Amino acid sequence: MALGSANGNRAEGATTPLMSWKNNLRALLVDASSTCRIIGKAYLTSYGVETEAVENGEAAFDLIYMGASFNVIIIDMHMREMNGAQCARRLRTMGVQSRLLGMSTSYREHEQHEFLAAGGNGFIQKPLHPSKFVPILQELDNN
Amino acid sequence: MERTHMRRQVGLMRQSLFTQGFLDEQFIQLEELQDDANPNFVEEIATLYYCDSSKSLQTIEQALEKTPHDFNKLDNHMHQFKGSSSSIGAKKVKDECQQFREYCKAGNREGCMRTFQLLKKEHATLKKKLEAYFQMARQAGPLETASRPK
């Protein structure tokens, strides 16, 4: 299989987004798997959301320190260096006000409690699918 | 005519990947992200997945060789692997991942080892099938599908 330029980027104006929003929505994906990052970014971008994807919590913190801001930050619950709750806690300590969503293929109740207690807002199932993220984006767009 | 025949073959090949349970609906979602601006998106994702996942499998294999098994660590590795496998719609691979995680939860060493071998087999089988599919799809040329407006 030939490796192409799969980075989830779409050329400006190359394709009309599948949805349009009142606001300029920005999302950050934090996921150790490059497959999941590319797919997630491609999905959200095709739905008109300006999306960044990073591979771990530290990279997310760096972006925030550099002044980036997002409406929603989607955090893989099970990263190597830190879990979703630890990442959420640090983001809140940094003053991040974005919606924080934990992402996983399956959830353990105590992990969910921990994430919410750390300042997380909710959860989204992996793999990302428009039926899951569109309602969340609609809610964000209306607030 | 030749091209039509090839496209039919590609269609049949694709269909069998679903009916035989190798792929699930998530793969269709990937196909929907493919368009004129990203004509090889699905193949590129599959290539990336196989790069990624081969490394993950090595890590898990090494962890399985250590005794005693650190089931927590194994479960974490597998969780990530399951995530990427789910993202491309690799159904049989994903199912084996789930089974592996069940054995980890139960602390069943033999179960883990056995399932891991099955997992590697499914992973390799899907790779071969996808390679054949993408190659034939490229030879058959692009389909005239309804793509999103530019």
TrEMBL record, chain A:
The keyword Hydrolase does not apply. One of its GO terms (biological process) is phosphorelay signal transduction system. The keyword Transmembrane helix does not apply. It comes from the Eukaryota. Pfam families: Response_reg. The modification 4-aspartylphosphate is found at residue 76. PANTHER family: HISTIDINE KINASE RESPONSE REGULATOR AND TRANSCRIPTION FACTOR RR-A-TYPE FAMILY-RELATED, TWO-COMPONENT RESPONSE REGULATOR. This is Response regulatory domain-containing protein. It comes from Rubus argutus (Southern blackberry).
TrEMBL record, chain B:
The modification Phosphohistidine is found at residue 79. The keyword Oxidoreductase does not apply. The keyword Phosphoprotein applies. GO terms for molecular function: histidine phosphotransfer kinase activity; protein histidine kinase binding. GO terms for cellular component: cytosol; nucleus. It comes from Rubus argutus (Southern blackberry). Gene3D superfamilies: HPT domain. It comes from the Eukaryota. Histidine-containing phosphotransfer domain (HPt) contains an active histidine that mediates the phosphotransfer. Keywords: Cytokinin signaling pathway, Phosphoprotein, Two-component regulatory system. InterPro entries: AHP1-5/YPD1, HPT_dom_sf, Sig_transdc_His_kin_Hpt_dom. It holds the Pfam family Hpt. PROSITE patterns: HPT (PS50894). It is found in: Cytoplasm, Cytosol; Nucleus. PANTHER family: HISTIDINE-CONTAINING PHOSPHOTRANSFER PROTEIN 4, PHOSPHORELAY INTERMEDIATE PROTEIN YPD1. Residues 38-133 form the HPt domain. One of its GO terms (biological process) is phosphorelay signal transduction system. Functions as a two-component phosphorelay mediators between cytokinin sensor histidine kinases and response regulators (B-type ARRs). Plays an important role in propagating cytokinin signal transduction. This is Histidine-containing phosphotransfer protein.
